[in-house]
Structure formats: structure tokens, C-alpha cells
Design a protein that fits this description.
The chain is built from four helices and eleven strands; from the N terminus they run ββαβααβββαβββββ. By secondary structure, the chain is an alpha+beta fold. The protein has a single domain, classed as Aminopeptidase (3-Layer(aba) Sandwich), CATH 3.40.630.
């Protein structure tokens, strides 16, 4: 399943494709995807095997078509989705918010792209103070590879590269029971608000460097590519 939240009639998603959708009829047990033909059941040994055969790397222009299909496939059966997540990625690539080094793919040993994550520039604004942060969205994994740990691999590597590039914090709208293991917490606890109506527990922020949130307060301002009505 894909983890998502609705805001003001429009959907904003950060997904790991392993957790139940916020507000959906599925619970954790019901959300487990059917095993694909030819795919092993994902026990501990199989997950470790998967980790050993997946490479996380920066996407290239040659990947764009395959990445688009990965995103569409990941969201195609999600009733909360507006099925335009691939278009968001297209818009972000053409915007000043795009960071090529933080648009990553998970590639199998035979060259298939199994997952994708994008972190783009956003801002937290308070009065005349502006802090650059990262917006995590979308995160997509092909249905056949879900629940194999690829989403976690993408998030952790994206965080590492972002920190190495000098970024201090990341924001996302995501599942309250999944993202804390990656360091995410309710943004409201740090005095950070999101520019739309969404469950408080779904609006999250993570420090990419210790103590980074100490001086970051205000309202998240997403890049225009997200097409969010924000003041």
C-alpha cells in the first residue's frame, strides 16, 4: 500500500509503498500485497538478498521514462491518489527546486529500476526569516518489489546524501507509524506548520544534522511545482 494524506480536497503524498494509506479502509494485515509470480516471499533472508542486489544511485536523463512508469505503477491502484505523481516529478525537474543529486533510483542487478525518491528544495518561512529545507515527495516502489526494504534504502541514502550536501532538515506528509524510524516527528513540536489542512500527525520533519531544528520555525512553503494553494 501507499501511505498518503489528503489536504483541502487535493492529495499530497510521500510514500514508502509498505504502509496502509492514511484514512483508507486497509489495516496493516490487509495491506500486505499479493506475492508476484516468480517473486520469493519476503522473509528476513530474502530481504537481505534483495539488499545485496539493489544499487541506489542518482537518476540520469536516460532513466526518466522508466522512472515515470515506476511512479505510475506504484500509485495506480491507490484510491487516495490523484494519479498525477509522475507529473509532479516532471514539473520539479524543470524547476529551480530540483536537486539532481537528490533524485535517486533503486536499480536491480539486471538494470531494472525498482524504486525512486525525490527530495526538492522547500522553505520554512517566519516573518523575514527563511530557512531552506527539503521536501520528500514522491517515494515510489514497483508493486513487485514492495515490502522488501527498498523504500527504507532510498530514504536512508537520500538523507545521507542530503546531509553531505549541507542540508539540515526535511519535511514530508506521511504515515505517522512508519517515518519516525527515519527520524521524523510531528512538525508542530518544532513550531513548524504546513500550508494546508492535514492531520497534524502526518505533517512531519526530520533533522539531517543534530540540532538543526533549534532555529527553524514557521510555515513550510513548497515550490510552485507542487501546485499548492499557499499564502
Amino acid at each position: 500500500m501507499v501511505d498518503s494524506c489528503k489536504s483541502g480536497g487535493r492529495l499530497y503524498i510521500c510514500t514508502d509503498n509498505t504502509q496502509p494509506a492514511t484514512g483508507s479502509r486497509y489495516g496493516p494485515e490487509q495491506s500486505r500485497p499479493t506475492r508476484q509470480a516468480g517473486m520469493p516471499r519476503q522473509g528476513r533472508n530474502n530481504t537481505q538478498m534483495m539488499h545485496n542486489t539493489i544499487a541506489i544511485r542518482q537518476e540520469t536523463a536516460a532513466d526518466f521514462t522508466q522512472v515515470r512508469e515506476v511512479i505510475r505503477a506504484a500509485f495506480q491502484d491507490i484510491e487516495e491518489s490523484d494519479h498525477t505523481e509522475h507529473l509532479l516529478v516532471d514539473r520539479l525537474r524543470q524547476s529551480d527546486a530540483y536537486i539532481a543529486e537528490l533524485s535517486l533510483v533503486a536499480e536491480t542487478a539486471d538494470g531494472q529500476i525498482a524504486g525512486h525518491i525525490m527530495l526538492s528544495k522547500a522553505e520554512v518561512i517566519s516573518g523575514d526569516r527563511t530557512h531552506t529545507v527539503l521536501a520528500v515527495a514522491p517515494l515510489s516502489v514497483l508493486p513487485a518489489f514492495q515490502r522488501s526494504g527498498i523504500g527504507s534504502m532510498l530514504i536512508r541514502e537520500a538523507h545521507r546524501r542530503a546531509s553531505d550536501s549541507g542540508y539540515d532538515a526535511a519535511v514530508l506528509l506521511g504515515h505517522k507509524d512508519y517515518y519516525p524510524k527515519f527520524g521524523y516527528k510531528k512538525a508542530s513540536l518544532s513550531g513548524i506548520k504546513f500550508p494546508f489542512d492535514a492531520p497534524d500527525e502526518c505533517c512531519m520533519v526530520a533533522e539531517l544534522k543534530p540540532g538543526a531544528l533549534k532555529d527553524i520555525h514557521g510555515t513550510v512553503h513548497y515550490p510552485d511545482a507542487f501546485q499548492i494553494d499557499q499564502q
